[in-house]
Amino acid sequence: MSATAAPAATRPVISAWSAVSPYGLGAQALVDGLSSGRSTVAPVDGARWGVPEVPAHLVPGFETRQVLGKKGTRSMDRVTGLAVSVVGGLLDQPEADRERETGERAALVLGTTTGSAESMMDFTRTSLRGEAPFDVDPAVMPNAVMNCAAGQCSIWYGIRGPNTTLAQGRTAGLAALHYSTRLLSSGRAGSVLCTAAEEFSRARYWLERHSRAAEAGDDAEMALGEGAAVLLLQRPDTLSPARPALAEVLAVRTRVATGDRTRPVLEACVASALEAAGARPGDVWAASPSDAPGRLGERERQALTALFGTETVERVPGVGRLGDVSAASSTFQIAFLLATAALSDEAAGRLAVVTSADRDGSLACAVLRLVAP
């Protein structure tokens, strides 16, 4: 599949979105939460999660079996439950066309960090503690595989086209967006559910706590968050009146850099994406950084502010209000952008830039053209 930019007439468009977030279930809960500006942070139940009573941004009251029902969810882990729930939220919208959005011509792409670290560690632990290494619960084995969540989404809703999991940390959402556009432009799918999910768990808490301690300048710890977001991508010629275009994906570009090189390389990445989109910095109405913890997030925000100005960078609420949602960050950023643009008379036809930066060095930038609601 060529990464060459598609002609304007065939550039993929985003026609719908949904979310399961610390604001609640569904797109409207996110819109209402952003409008209210309310905080989603609260101390976690230490006994329930096996962690200190630290602040975190959890999806309120989310229990997989209560949300999805008891059938087929006995051994489903949290990240899979979040992913299946968010896809269902989009497919259950009144405007949805199940015939087009599921089936053999529908694809699903999911961005993640590692899948479920909790499931991987639990499965390994039982193997080490059992009388024999194979004394494990076979029902738990699928959860320990990174592509479990994506596979369950497709099985649950009958999505029989390409099914892909991309593990890329904080930039996974934009990697999934890029991959989704290539599936459409190559004709391998008629629609794509572009998804990203991140869970809160004991394993993730301790991994983040110990790994962040080694990062210079990251003394101010960001509370962990969780959730999932999904975008429906289609070719313009397959749109229906019920699902009009919300945004056109003009370009996605990536780079790699760490430390002091992050800011200049990110600026080069943004410049490359704008060039591919045939745009200039002055054309950009909103720019959304991924609010990475510590110095990395500071460098990312400084780069966008230098390119576009403070007003442009602050036009869309920061994804950091959901805490550190890691792999789900950039998909939530796009959801925030679409929610904000829908309430603005000046957004239609304007450009938006979404960037993401991961501490392992991956950088990404997407350029979108907003469409009037």
Helix content: 25-40%
Largest sheet: 10 strands, mixed
Number of helices: 13
Structural class: alpha+beta
What integer value in Å does the Rg equal? 20 Å
Distance between the termini: 31 Å
CATH class of the largest domain: Alpha Beta
In the CATH classification, which architecture of the largest domain applies? 3-Layer(aba) Sandwich
Protein name: 3-oxoacyl-ACP synthase
Pfam family, one: ketoacyl-synt
Keywords: Transferase
GO molecular function, one term: 3-oxoacyl-[acyl-carrier-protein] synthase activity
Secondary structure layout:
Layout: E1 13-21, E2 24-25, H1 27-36, E3 42-43, H2 46-49, E4 55-56, H3 64-68, H4 78-91, H5 98-101, E5 106-112, H6 117-129, H7 148-157, E6 163-167, H8 172-185, E7 191-198, H9 202-212, E8 227-234, E9 247-256, H10 262-277, E10 284-288, H11 294-308, H12 310-313, H13 329-341, E11 351-357, E12 362-370
Parallel strand pairs: 5-6, 5-7, 10-11
Antiparallel strand pairs: 1-2, 1-8, 1-9, 3-4, 7-8, 9-12, 11-12
Protein name: 3-oxoacyl-ACP synthase
Keywords: Transferase
GO molecular function, one term: 3-oxoacyl-[acyl-carrier-protein] synthase activity
